[in-house]
Design brief:
The protein is of the alpha/beta class. Helices cover 26% and strands 23% of the residues. The relative contact order is 0.15.
Length: 356
């Protein structure tokens, strides 16, 4: 089969790789119908995630069909259409019992496209399938459902819930990429007074308005002053960092009010300065986190009911074999206007099932 392989910082290719096979009775093999590219994948290609070994198939988000299931798999069977979660859960360790699946110590957590071969391929092996894939109703399109593998639960759990967004809050979201837009959309579920989006790109600021931002600010045009003006100098109740850069994190800590929350979502490859000389007296709570995906079933129900704006997120679609072109479009989002790119899906031909 073909897969998109990390070959070291700055190097990757869509190439022949071995077909996956069951290794444990809890595994499933999924034929990938729709897959997407995450900002984390770009961090990997830059060398920001050194745990990823050369030769690893990237990707941790997919929709597909189960073609083989291990003897101990009970919740899905061959022929079932499923969402492959970005987080794998053993279901037995201390952290899984606390629903902190991202911290799984039983062989799960973020492993797909990180510690083992991932989803950007024609087929993928999913460990602990009973807890790591979700059956999908036929009414949800693959290109919509794949957004629930990572970006929506990440934005909702690590941004909105960790940040404790409440009715009447002022919420500032720094970074209007896919996760930032999902944070805007899911913040609105809690009826904040206003949401302010900050980004570099006019196209993404316009997208932020479509997803529910009440005000937008170019990062070079005094966003802190806008927040102060809208809050009588108090600052935002919740600031969500959705970039993963030192400058954006430090901006977030300057925009939050005393007693407020800074929720960091971004993947950071460089150190950021924590200005405790300013923050120690402000009673500020700073949270970090890897998504746990405990909210995925809830978000799936909302998507089926039409309560999540998934359709407006996908700006580009490609067949699977144009993976390299899709990466180029996504990496140059400032030029291409890309928000989320999806490969495969109902509009593209299916691949053949491998034979033993």
């Amino acid at each position: 089969m073909k897969g998109f392989v990390f070959q070291g910082p700055g190097e990757s290719a869509w190439q022949d790789v071995p077909d996956p096979a069951l290794k444990e009775p809890t595994d499933a093999i999924v034929k990938v119908d729709a897959v997407t590219i995450c900002g984390t994948d770009l961090h990997i290609l830059k060398g920001d995630v050194p745990e990823v070994r050369t030769g690893t198939v990237l990707g941790h988000e997919a929709v597909g069909e189960v073609v083989e299931a291990g003897a101990d798999v009970r919740s899905v069977r061959p022929g079932d259409r499923v969402l492959v979660s970005c987080i794998t859960s053993c279901g037995r360790c201390r952290f899984c019992r606390e629903r902190r699946y991202g911290q799984c110590r039983g062989g799960g957590g973020w492993i797909l496209g990180h510690l083992i071969d991932g989803t950007q391929a024609e087929f993928v092996r999913v460990p602990y399938a009973d807890l790591s894939v979700h059956p999908l109703p036929g009414t949800v399109r693959g290109e919509d459902a794949v957004l629930l593998a990572d970006i929506f639960p990440t934005a909702y759990e690590v941004g909105v819930l960790n940040g404790r967004v409440r009715p009447g809050d002022t919420v500032a979201v720094v970074g209007a990429g896919p996760v930032g837009l999902a944070a805007i959309a899911t913040s609105r579920l809690f009826s904040p007074e206003r949401i302010i989006a900050v980004d570099l790109t006019p196209a993404r600021l316009e997208a932020a308005r479509r997803f529910g931002a009440d005000a937008v600010a170019d990062v070079h045009e005094a966003p802190r002053q806008l927040v102060d003006d809208l809050t009588d100098g108090l600052g935002a109740d919740v600031v969500i960092e959705a970039v993963g850069a030192p400058e954006s994190f430090e901006l977030c800590t300057r925009m939050v009010r005393p007693g407020g929350h800074v929720a960091n979502i971004g993947v950071h490859g460089k150190p950021a300065t924590l200005h405790l000389e300013d923050l120690w007296i402000k009673d500020v709570t700073i949270t970090t986190g890897l998504v746990d995906t405990y909210s995925t079933p809830t978000l799936l129900r909302m998507a089926v009911a039409g309560r999540l704006p998934t359709a407006g997120m996908v700006t580009h679609t490609f067949p699977l074999d144009l993976m390299e072109e899709a990466y180029e479009v996504f990496a140059k989002a400032g030029e291409t206007g890309a928000l989320k790119v999806v490969l495969g899906g109902e509009q593209h031909a299916e691949v053949a099932v491998p034979t033993a």
